[in-house]
Amino acid sequence: MTNQVLIKSPMQTSIYKQARITRDPRFDGVFFIAVKTTHIFCRSICPANLPHEKNVEYFQHAQQAMNQGYRPCLRCRPDSAPQSYAWKGVETTVNRAMRLLREHNDLTIKDITLKLGISDRYLRQLFAKYLGLSPKQYQVFNKVLFAKKLLHETAMNIENVAHASGFASSRRLQHNFKQITGLTPLQIRKNKVNQNQNLILKLHFRPPFNWHYIQNFLLKRAIDGLETVTADSYSRTFSIDGLKGWFTANYQQGENYLTLEINLPKIEHLSILLSNIERIFDLNADILQIQQQLIKSGIPKDKLIDGIRLPGVWDTFEAGCRAILGQQISVKAAISLLSLLTQTLGDKIADRYYFPTPQAISKSNLEFLKIPKSRKQCLQDFCEYYVTYPNHSPDAWIQIKGIGPWTISYAKMRGMSEPNIWLETDLIIKKQLDRYKIDSTLSSPWRSYLTFQLWSMA
After folding, report:
1. What is the C-alpha end-to-end distance of the chain, expressed in Å?
2. Superfamily grouping for domain 316-416
3. Nearest alpha-carbon partner for 91 in 45, 60, 48
4. Does the N-terminal peptide bond of residue 208 adopt cis geometry, omega within 30 degrees of 0?
5. How many Cβ atoms sit within 10 Å of the Cβ of residue 377?
6. HEC assignment per residue over the chain
7. Considering only 169-178, 300-309, 408-417, 420-429, which range has the smallest mean pLDDT?
8. What sign does the CA torsion over 101, 104, 106, 108 have?
């Protein structure tokens, strides 16, 4: 297997060398440092004594380093680094496969290829070309890294850690963990007393991260009873496969991570939940590259939102409902409608509301909503379509009367966090383009960020 190191040019080597010497958190998860003398690999922020450059090699992904026999550092913990996708917009199949393998660690490689619509052989060829390892190896390494994170940060028993990580049993976890890291799960696990029945975890991000911007955006659009936004936290309910839970994300001032408190009824859903939370807060954004592209497109440096992110919503269905009810009215009025919809048709457990299902909305006459009849019909038709075709791309919604390109693009931008959505027909965007000399093509593939940047400048 070819050793897929990151050294592609003297300039790039110089950048990574400087980043590791200065322990620059902006490069956390962008690359990993493997030390030949210790056979250990680290994050760019590792506080350990710096090795000589001659003893170092760089990898794009932790799984690549593990494939070459390096063990993850117990001090800086590569398992907790933000994710980084080197081929976003270039090799989308590889990117999608990596995401599916990380989010759905219970799926087989055959399941992944069926979702991608490609053959097993072609997937292996892509992984060999871009990662230097097989899909199966990537999946096992990823499971071990995730298990390591849970062992470090939670008081979950070994059996639950195994199931949350995608292993069939604690025995399979221990076998793979020992083989790859050289340690047993119990050697990682410190004595913990669980004082909270909920799960507590950390999600790291690369700075700059503009919490105030994303907090303010979500606050203005929070659905009463479903979402709660404070100065330093965001809470919401969710449903996965019909099972209901909630999470609270707390921003830690001066730290490059969010602390999560999670109420999750089925531990096997943990990787899906964490991936969605990362998407809602856009924690894995390559923010340095994005900001460079925004400036290149014409955004004045003094207007640039440092650390801008794409604030997401739970899924495309909720994003579609938000977009439909938000057509041609203010944000405040739209949220009032969404809150009424949720509190009328959504389930309530204790004092928490859950967003209504497509089935619940499609069966209602929606008489409690004071909106035009055509808007009600559009929402009902949308929900009926979603009941029948829950996995169709939002692009297919165009056949529903009352749904146009703007609604679809908005749902993809917030419900799927697609980075290159350009709402050129949006009235605010049009006004901003008239005011500033912006060339949107120069911000590609990050035009969604340009959209949010221009909205904020209105």
Report:
1. 52
2. Hypothetical protein; domain 2 (1.10.340.30)
3. 60
4. yes
5. 14
6. CCCCECCCCHHHHHHHHHHHHHCCHHHECCEEEEECCCCEEECCCCCCCCCCHHHEEEECCHHHHHHCCCEECCCCCHHHCCCCCCCCCCCHHHHHHHHHHHHCCCCCHHHHHHHHCCCHHHHHHHHHHHCCCCHHHHHHHHHHHHHHHHHHHCCCCHHHHHHHHCCCCHHHHHHHHHHHHCCCHHHHCCCCCCCCCCEEEEEECCCCCCHHHHHHHHHHCCCCCCEEECCCEEEEEEEECCEEEEEEEEECCCCCEEEEEEECCCHHHHHHHHHHHHHHCCCCCCHHHHHHHHHHHCCCHHHCCCCCCCCCCCCHHHHHHHHHHCCCCCHHHHHHHHHHHHHHHCCEECCEECCCCHHHHHCCCCCCCCCCHHHHHHHHHHHHHHHHCCCCCHHHHHHCCCCCHHHHHHHHHHHCCCCCCCCCCCHHHHHHHHHCCCCHHHHCCCHHHHHHHHHHCC
7. 420-429
8. negative
List the structure tokens of 273. Answer: 């939940």
Q: Which CATH architecture has domain 10-71?
A: 3-Layer(aba) Sandwich (3.40)
Q: 36-43 long-range contacts, Cβ below 8 Å, gap at least 24? A: 39/69, 39/70, 39/71, 40/70, 40/71, 40/72, 40/73, 41/65, 41/66, 41/70, 41/71, 41/72, 41/73, 41/78, 42/73, 42/75, 42/76, 42/78, 43/73, 43/76, 43/77, 43/78, 43/81
Beta pairing class for 352-353 and 257-263? unpaired
Vertex 274 angle, CA 273 and 276, to 5°: 65
State the fold for domain 92-188: Arc Repressor Mutant, subunit A (1.10.10)
Phi first, then psi: give them for residue 118, nearest 5 degrees.
-130, 170
User: Within the chain, which residue ranges are assigned CATH 3.40.10.10?
Assistant: 10-71
pLDDT in tens, 207-255: 999 999 999 999 999 999 999 999 999 999 999 999 999 999 999 999 9
Give the global pTM.
0.91
CA separation (Å) from 169 to 103, 112, 154, 174?
A: 19, 22, 18, 9
pLDDT tens readout for residues 136-163: 999 999 999 999 999 999 989 999 999 9
